[in-house]
Amino acid sequence: QVQLVESGGGLVQAGGSLRLSCAASGRTFSRFMMGWFRQAPGKERDFVAAINWSGYSTYYADSVKGRFTISRDNAKNTVYLQMNSLKPEDTAIYSCAAAAREHEYDYWGQGTQVTVSS
Predict the structure, then answer these.
(1) CA distances from 114 to 28, 74, 85, 98, 108 (A)
(2) pLDDT class for 87, splitting at 50, 70, 90?
(3) Is the pLDDT assigned to residue 39 strictly greater than 80?
(4) What is the SS3 assignment for 63?
(5) What is the pLDDT of residue 108?
(6) Which residues on neighbouring strands pair with residue 60, listed in sequence order?
């Protein structure tokens, strides 16, 4: 089992920045690919970004490329999502997830709300 707890969400004006954190406990964090997803009201959950176990490979949705950066600190069992140049359409609940096999997510956090005002 892997437990994931997100933090860092909040209310920010358009053009602002936030950094989300996801702290993991349980099985060996460094063995997992980690991802961030988001779900806006009335919409399906969408992929945002992912990072492989070593941090060497990262993946982004087209909508966030150049604005968001995913990173991880395996010594701290934590993955981060730095979000810059935020837009109102980035408003959503952001959740992190862990994948034992690349892009196959087995564990999910509860999520943290991000609200971007115009």
Answers:
(1) 28, 25, 13, 20, 17
(2) very high
(3) yes
(4) coil
(5) 97
(6) 49
In 3D space, the residue among 23, 28, 80, 75 whose CA is nearest the CA of residue 51 turns out to be 80
Q: If you write DSSP's letter for every residue of 27-53 in order, what string do you get?
A: S-GGGSEEEEEEE-TTS-EEEEEEE-T
The DSSP code for 91 is: -
**Whole-number pLDDT of residue 33:** 95
13, 54, 56, 66 from 111: Cα distances, Å: 20, 24, 25, 23
What phi, psi does 100 have (nearest 5°)?
-70, -35
Question: What tokens appear for 32 in the block?
Answer: 């997992």
Mean pLDDT of 67-94: 97
Secondary element (H or E) of residue 2: strand 2-7
Helix or strand or coil: residue 16?
Answer: coil
Nearest Cα residue to 80 out of 58, 102, 107, 61 = 58
Kindly report the number of other CB atoms within 10 A of residue 30's CB atom: 13
